TrEMBL record:
UniProt xrefs under InterPro entries: Menaquinone_biosynth, MqnA
Metabolic or biological pathway, per its Swiss-Prot or TrEMBL entry: Quinol/quinone metabolism; menaquinone biosynthesis
UniProt name for this protein: Chorismate dehydratase
Described function: Catalyzes the dehydration of chorismate into 3-[(1-carboxyvinyl)oxy]benzoate, a step in the biosynthesis of menaquinone (MK, vitamin K2).
Designated gene of the protein: mqnA
The entry's keywords: Lyase, Menaquinone biosynthesis
Catalytic activity: chorismate = 3-[(1-carboxyvinyl)-oxy]benzoate + H2O
Organism: Helicobacter gastrofelis
Length: 231
């Protein structure tokens, strides 16, 4: 079993969960070697170097259409803090996230797309700073829906991954103090900022989230935003 994981703070609760979840030793070994940013995992998924993972929503379209998805995802609840567009900066996309770039185009924004720890550091930096838009906030303002940034998709071992996903979002996760301190040092944020960020991230896909994905895919087709492909 080959599982790929996004090495971002939004999956810190999953990191804690998976350490205690019963999996084959080969799964844990692969997990430690297949940590990367979203666009790289998309590529690995397309070429079947991994058979499951939290895949960018845009790249996960075919899995969604084939129903090879779990009811688990990375969801921005009204705001996300880690996916921003800096409006006064030179226009530019972020090479690490296809979905964030597509959402920026769907929402008709122009500016510099910023994701992950870089976006969180910018969000928490003291004034003055450039005008910016939180993409999950703007999506919610326009649709009344949360935005799904990544979906737990699979290409094999569907029963195993579906059971894992359900166990993850049903189990309350407490992050140990020492791990928070480690991630704070790595990210350049403090413990309070990390916990505040995680309060805005949901993981269970309910009807609202599913409908939000449907709306996003429809807008991607209408605006002819290119989706990541194998070739």
């Amino acid at each position: 079993m080959r599982f790929g994981k996004i090495d971002y703070l939004n999956l810190l609760p999953f990191d804690i969960f998976i350490k205690g979840y019963p999996t084959p030793s080969s799964f844990k070994q692969c997990l430690n070697h297949r940590k990367s940013y979203p666009a790289k995992l998309n590529h690995d998924f397309f070429f079947r170097r991994i058979d499951a993972g939290f895949i960018s929503s845009l790249a996960g379209y075919d899995s969604w259409r084939k129903k090879q998805v779990t009811s688990c995802a990375i969801i921005g609840n009204k705001k996300v803090l880690s996916v921003l567009v800096l409006l006064q900066e030179k226009e530019g996309l972020d090479a690490q996230s296809a979905t964030s770039n597509a959402l920026c185009q769907v929402l008709g924004l122009k500016g510099q797309v910023l994701i992950g720890d870089k976006a969180l550091r910018f969000y928490h930096q003291p004034q003055p700073k450039s005008d910016f838009v939180d993409l999950a906030t703007l999506w919610h303002q326009k649709t009344g829906l949360p935005f799904v940034f990544g979906r737990f998709c699979y290409q094999a071992h569907g029963k195993f991954y579906t059971k894992m996903a359900k166990a993850f979002y049903q189990r309350p996760i407490k992050i140990p103090h020492y791990i928070l301190e480690q991630r704070a040092k790595q990210s350049g944020l403090n413990r309070g900022q990390i916990l505040y960020y995680l309060k805005h991230i949901l993981y269970r896909v309910r009807p609202k989230e599913e409908f939000s994905l449907h709306c996003f895919y429809r807008q991607v087709r209408l605006k002819r935003v290119p989706r990541p492909r194998r070739f």
